[in-house]
Amino acid sequence: MEQQHLLNLVEEHGSPLYVYDANVIEAQYKRMANAFSSVDNLRINYAVKANTNLAILKVLKSLGSGVDAVSIQEVQLCLKAGFTTEQIFYTPSGISFEEVEKAVDLGVQITLDNLSILERFGNTYPDIPVCLRINPHVMAGGNHKISVGHIDSKFGISIYQIKNIKEVIAKTGTIINGIHMHTGSDIYNIDAFVQATEILLDVVKEFEHIEFVDFGSGFKVPYKEGDNETNIERMGEQISERFNQFCVEYGKDLTLIFEPGKFLVSASGNLLTQVNVVKPTPNIVFVGVDSGLNHLIRPMMYDAYHHITNVTNSNDSEQKVYSVVGYICENDTFGHNRKMNKVSEGDILRIHNAGAYSFSMSSNYNSRYRTAEVMTYKGKDYLIRERETFEDLLKNQVEITL
Ligand SMILES: *Cc1c(COP(=O)(O)O)cnc(C)c1O
């Protein structure tokens, strides 16, 4: 996005501000669809937890995307955004049977990741086919906080428990219509994915009524210049070929599903924030901005790198080194020792790649308001969320008299 455009949006809507370029989402969606174009039945189910704004959901719906929802509330948001029940795949982990019942009432495709729930489900709803989340026990993902497919992960039913699954479904008569895995986030190495694919396809062979195979997601996106990313085109070629061959072996045209979150929305997002103070100390020049881990927790939670640029000063002949920190009473740091165009108080900084797990993980910590959000798409700007007000902080508090 153009610098001036970003500055105008902050002028109009205030700082801090999330701005999404939905043209980027569209390009990423098409890139993924193209990479797997040789598969007849492909579904891309956007993992909505990455960014649940209804406007973003509507853009993805218009592109033909389905959705992956991990809570009943996400299912409700997707229905609100206009997705049909056939387009909603519900893939929760460790939830109560009561929540599963609600998903049944809403009529969405359910994935279960627990043997005891599978048994209860089969006894209660013998006629509803269900998908199983399998844990393939491969180590994949950017770091251990976001690896969810390894042997000690809470997710999925272990591939070593296929026998137990079969015992349960023999008892209940449940039809397994899909097999699912999701091994983590930030997976750069295609080989780990291909290895997990083979394991998953072996599981598919164990069941007769499979209609779809869901490979989850976890594609890595570049966070800085020169950063690597999952080679989606090469992966598309490899997995498509293997999948098509497998459909022949299985004797049925299965549907191939992916559930990208980050890949679709990360690069579209920016957090724009104004510089409150420039604070030189003996070792470090701090830049303190009017935002913090309450608005973007990824650097603190995952040690995630987010590129930061100075939107106000485009003169790159006067670069300096800064540490960009938040206004929360914690060591909230957006970036250490970053080379940026000279920063002055009042400048607007742009924190890049803030479209995924950014606003959706934000909070009111330190009693700060969550930001407004703006989306730009096909030459038009839309305010898609108002900034919070003091009323929002009080909303559910119950005042008592002592
Ligand atoms: C979070 C999640 C995804 C998306 O992961 P990304 O790394 O954002 O692509 C997909 N599937 C499931 C089940 C998830 O929980």
From TrEMBL:
Pathway assignment: Amino-acid biosynthesis; L-lysine biosynthesis via DAP pathway; L-lysine from DL-2,6-diaminopimelate: step 1/1
Sequence positions that bind pyridoxal 5'-phosphate: G218, Y357
UniProt keywords, alphabetically: Amino-acid biosynthesis, Decarboxylase, Lyase, Lysine biosynthesis, Pyridoxal phosphate
Residue stretches making up the Orn/DAP/Arg decarboxylase 2 N-terminal domain: 25-266
Gene3D superfamilies according to UniProt: Alanine racemase, Lyase, Ornithine Decarboxylase, Chain A, domain 1
Domain Orn/DAP/Arg decarboxylase 2 C-terminal, chain residue ranges per copy: 18-355
Ligand binding (substrate): R298, Y302, E330, Y357
Superkingdom of the organism of origin: Bacteria
Cofactor(s) named in the record: pyridoxal 5'-phosphate
EC number: 4.1.1.20
Reactions listed under catalytic activity: meso-2,6-diaminopimelate + H(+) = L-lysine + CO2
Enzyme class: lyase
InterPro entries, alphabetized: Ala_racemase/Decarboxylase_C, DAP_deCOOHase_LysA, De-COase2_C, De-COase2_N, De-COase2_pyr-phos_BS, Orn/DAP/Arg_de-COase, PLP-binding_barrel
Keyword presence, S-adenosyl-L-methionine: no
PTM-bearing positions, type N6-(pyridoxal phosphate)lysine: K49
Single GO term (MF): diaminopimelate decarboxylase activity
Function in brief: Specifically catalyzes the decarboxylation of meso-diaminopimelate (meso-DAP) to L-lysine.
Subunit structure: Homodimer.
Family affiliation: Belongs to the Orn/Lys/Arg decarboxylase class-II family. LysA subfamily.
Stated name of the protein: Diaminopimelate decarboxylase
Organism: Urechidicola vernalis
Originating gene: lysA
